[in-house]
User: Which sequence fits this backbone?
């Protein structure tokens, strides 16, 4: 008799037998489905619509470059939580400009988005298309790069004994408090939008978000939770949960307890409909396999079609691995954010 000692035998069978109670199905009324799943997603992530408090902004050093000005700043998210950031403003554009909230993933920090190298390996990380705010500025966008919780300047410092991986302890603490790191980081990104809306040179109707890996995760959920985002561009994070988070080691901050009782990733992406979504994937991404990306995308396509918005969804597949593809992405970004 075969014995099953490995817990994955149990989990994989449970995945197969668990009904996704709020998965999108043929004939489903789109809006009724959307708001039911959105309520459940908010509940599972611990996301709450925050009370809008006045922004407290401290401006730091400004540095001039040939094509843009870079400003250092710090602003408040919520009580006991502040965000360092870089704002990059193009010099060549007059009048109101589109803007991008730029989100780093599991890297040394948000300075990479601004094209700054501080640590060994930073130049290599940037070469994978991770200088998002610089890309934004060079393409006529205001780029706001923020430091995500647990990374770079917002790493954990109060705890004596910690996991080597920077997000693990804080993500588990968040679970214990009925929240998720996803919800906490989305709150920070929402405050970044609040800040952009105070700038008279930013077009409030053309604000987007972009990020790779862990930054792509928050771009994905920010696009679901915040209607002000005209275009969400998650990179190398979109894939079926089955073929990514349930099959390959991933950081704890990617997980939402209980989500597979209700929906898969392709369903969640449908919550973005009818607003615009550009999904970026790598052909050779080892942790978000392309087979899972395509499977999830088939579900998301059906939902966008049901919402009458099939043209607002696009999939860009780069030829390499777990990175961003600026040369291919920015023409699409500009086309999508500038169209009705």
Assistant:
């Amino acid at each position: 008799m075969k014995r099953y000692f490995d817990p994955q035998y149990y989990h994989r069978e449970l995945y197969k037998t668990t009904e996704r109670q709020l998965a999108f199905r043929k004939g489903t009324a789109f809006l009724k489905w959307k708001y039911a799943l959105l309520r459940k997603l908010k509940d599972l992530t611990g996301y709450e619509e925050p009370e809008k408090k006045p922004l407290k902004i401290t401006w730091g050093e400004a540095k001039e470059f040939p094509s843009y000005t870079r400003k250092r700043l710090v602003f408040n998210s919520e009580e006991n939580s502040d965000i360092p950031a870089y704002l990059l403003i193009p010099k060549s554009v007059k009048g109101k400009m589109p803007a991008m909230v730029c989100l780093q993933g599991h890297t040394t920090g948000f300075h990479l988005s601004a094209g700054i190298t501080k640590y060994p390996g930073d130049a290599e990380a940037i070469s994978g298309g991770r200088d998002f705010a610089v890309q934004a500025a060079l393409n006529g966008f205001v780029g706001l790069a923020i430091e995500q919780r647990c990374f770079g300047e917002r790493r954990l410092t109060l705890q004596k004994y910690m996991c080597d991986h920077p997000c693990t302890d804080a993500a588990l603490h968040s679970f214990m408090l009925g929240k998720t790191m996803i919800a906490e980081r989305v709150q920070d990104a929402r405050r970044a939008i609040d800040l952009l809306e105070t700038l008279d040179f930013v077009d409030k109707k053309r604000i987007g978000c972009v990020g790779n890996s862990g930054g792509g995760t928050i771009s994905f959920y920010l696009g679901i939770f915040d209607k002000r985002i005209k275009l969400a561009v998650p990179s190398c994070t979109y894939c079926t949960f089955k073929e990514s988070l349930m099959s390959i080691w991933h950081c704890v901050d990617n997980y939402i307890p209980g989500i597979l009782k209700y929906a898969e990733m392709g369903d969640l992406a449908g919550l973005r409909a009818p607003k615009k979504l550009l999904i970026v994937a790598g052909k050779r991404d080892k942790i978000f396999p392309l087979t899972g990306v395509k499977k999830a995308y088939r579900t998301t396509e059906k939902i966008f079609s049901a919402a009458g918005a099939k043209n607002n969804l696009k999939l860009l597949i780069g030829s390499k691995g777990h990175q961003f593809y600026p040369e291919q992405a920015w023409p699409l970004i500009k086309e999508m954010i500038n169209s009705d």
About this structure: The longest strand covers residues 68-78. The CA atoms of residues 279 and 315 lie 5 Å apart. The first helix runs from residue 7 to 17.
